[in-house]
Amino acid sequence: MRANQVPTEEIKREPAAFDDRVTADGRYGRTAEPGRYRLIINRACPWAHRVVITRRLMGLEDAVSLAVTDPKQEIIDGDPHWVFTEETGSPGGRDPVLGIHALREAYLAREPDYDGGVSVPGLVDVPSGHLVSNDYDRLALDMATEWDGLTREGAPDLYPETLRGEIEEIGEGVYQDVNNGVYRTGFAPDQEHYDQAVDRLFSRLDELEERLTGRRYLAGDHITMADIRLFVTLVRFDAAYHGHFKCNIRKLIEYPALWAYARDLFQTPGFGDTTRFDHIRVHYYWVHEGVNPTRIVARGPDPRQWLLPHGREALGGSPFGSGAAPGPVPEGERVPDLR
Ligand SMILES: N[C@@H](CCC(=O)N[C@@H](CS)C(=O)NCC(=O)O)C(=O)O
C-alpha cells in the first residue's frame, strides 16, 4: 500500500532493502570514518528519529552528517517521495552534499534496477552516493555500540550487555503494539482490524503506564535504547496519532506516568531538541491522503505543555548513567523553539 492511498489491507512491513553494517573495525566490510556517511531523515518519521536521537546522544554529529527532507514529500508518478526542497533548507531543491533531489536517487545509485520502497532513515556513502542501509534499528544499535573512537567523551551506554535481553523483550512489545501499532490502527482496512489494533495499542500503553509508575526508565536506571524506541511514538501521539490515526481511547496526557516520563525525556538533551511538531503534524495529515482526503492539518495540541515540570527525578536514576549529557545541538541542526 502507498502511504497516500486508501488502505485495503493490513499494513505490512518489508525487511530493510539494504542493511550493510558500518562499524569502527570494519568487520562487515564498511568502516566508520568521520565524514564518510550522511544520514538522510525526515523530522516527522519516528523510525528516523530513533537514529537521530542515538546519533546525538553518542556525539556522532561530526562523524555522520545529517540531511533533512521535506515533511510534505513530493508526489512523483503517484507515489510520495522523500525530497530535498528550498523550504526545508536545501538550496535549489538538492542536497548540498550529495547533489540529489530525491532519496530514491541514492537507492538507484546503489542498485540501478531497484524498484522497491524508499524509506527514511537512510545512510548514504558520500563518495559514491550509494545507499548503505535503511535498516533503522540496526543503524541505531550500531551507532550505540560499534562506533568506538568516534563517539564523544561521556557518551552513555544505551545498550548495556547485562540489559540487552530485557531491552529486546520490552522492545518487541513496544514495536508490535505501539511503534507499529499506531500505524496498524491508523491504516486499518476495516473495523475489525481497527478494533484489534487499537485494543492492543492501549493494553500495551496501560501496561507501560504501570511499569513506569515506579521507575524512571524502562530498563535499568538510565536511558537505554528501550526508552528511545518508546519515546519516538509517545512524542507524536497527541499531535498526530490521537486524531489522524484514530488512536483516541486515551491521550498521552491522560496517562500520568507515561506523560511525565515522556516529558522527562523530552526535556533531556537529545530528545526535545531533535523534535519538530510542525513537521510531524504536516507530514501525517498532509501525506496520508487516503485517510485524510482534505489534507487539512490539525492544529493542536499546544506543544509548550511538553516543557511542564515532570517530577520524575524523585524516582532516582540518572539520564546518562556514568556518562554525561551531550553539548549543544550543532548550529545547522537546531529546531525552532516550541510555539
Ligand atoms: N522501512 C521501515 C521503517 C521506516 C519507515 O517506514 N519510514 C517511513 C516514514 S515514517 C517511510 O519512509 N515510509 C516509506 C514511504 O512513506 O514511502 C519499515 O517499513 O520497517
Automatic annotation (TrEMBL):
GO terms for molecular function: glutathione transferase activity. The active site is at 45 (nucleophile), 183 (proton donor/acceptor). Gene3D superfamilies: 1.20.1050.10, Glutaredoxin. Residues 160-284 form the GST C-terminal domain. It holds the Pfam family GST_C_2. GO terms for cellular component: cytoplasm. Residues 314-339 are annotated as: Disordered. The record marks 241, 284 as: Lowers pKa of active site Cys. Coiled coil: none annotated. InterPro entries: Glutathione-S-Trfase_C-like, Glutathione-S-Trfase_C_sf, Glutathione_S-Trfase, GST_Omega-like_C, GST_Omega/GSH, Thioredoxin-like_sf. Glutathione binds at residue 82. It comes from the Bacteria. This is Glutathione-dependent reductase.
